[in-house]
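Q: what does this look like with NAP bound?
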Amino acid sequence: MSKPFAIVTGASSGIGLELAAICAQEGFDLLVVADRPEIRAAAERFRSLGADVTVVETDLATTDGVDRLWSAAARRPVDALLANAGHGLGHAFLDQDFDDIRHVIDTNITGTIHLVQLVGRTMRSRGTGRILLTGSIAGFMPGTYQAVYNGTKAFVDSFSFALRAELKDSGVTVTCLMPGATETDFFERADMLDTQVGQSKKDDPADVARVGFDAMMRGDGDVVSGWKNKLQSAIANVTPAGVLAEQHRRMAEPGSASKTEA
Ligand SMILES: NC(=O)c1ccc[n+]([C@@H]2O[C@H](COP(=O)([O-])OP(=O)(O)OC[C@H]3O[C@@H](n4cnc5c(N)ncnc54)[C@H](OP(=O)(O)O)[C@@H]3O)[C@@H](O)[C@H]2O)c1
């Protein structure tokens, strides 16, 4: 009997690395992707856990990158798509480079939903499949000094629920994993290490990934990892956006790591 097959994007580090490791432990073969060569070392870890692993190194912010990934699946039926690749971008919007801004949008939104459409169509025609999207509790709050990123995660959170409703009774489930701040390369890559959130104690990516994987296997609609994040997102739902934007300023303003809390 062939093993189930999962595609995991952004599997070279952080939450995606742990999601792919859990998939390998739970008996999935893998197609893993990231943009940098570190994905090859990560693939060795997944192989040591028993998975047959195909690796693709490509930029999922591009149409060509998504097509290359999809070609590498070689028409093998996909049992689970874990669309996790994404990155942030700190600093004030007007000071950011527009190419960097576009890369955040093209990775977190365009590349993500392009892949979800390609894979989702095959799942719908087979009448089975699981899709896990890594959204964020950042999608519940305006992201002062990380404005575009939070906007992309609001998109992912919203999109996930809509797609889930469209696929009701199709045999395909859609789950949104919404982590809070997690100890990964995210804040360094977003140039946010001098911020309060960048220096704060964060969740363990292995724990976050386990919560997401289990929710996907149950077919849940969404899961916020960790009780503090559950509380934060519940409060965000009843707090005016202007207040949330000011709270986010205190967490994400460049240099806020060295300021005493107001
Ligand atoms: N860390 C947090 O606090 C947090 C909280 C909520 C949600 N999230 C979300 O969790 C997901 C994973 O992030 P993480 O925290 O685990 O950060 P991470 O350690 O930086 O991992 C990000 C992964 O995505 C890949 N990636 C990013 N852009 C890509 C692109 N254009 N093409 C291909 N691969 C790309 C990276 O590979 P390369 O290095 O090769 O580009 C890496 O494998 C993201 O969607 C992020 O928004 C993170």
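Residues 10-16, 34-36, 59-61, 84-87, 107, 134, 136, 179, 181-182, 184-186, 189, 205 surround NAP (CB under 6 Å). Strands lie at 5-9, 29-34, 53-57, 80-83, 129-134, 172-178, 222-224.
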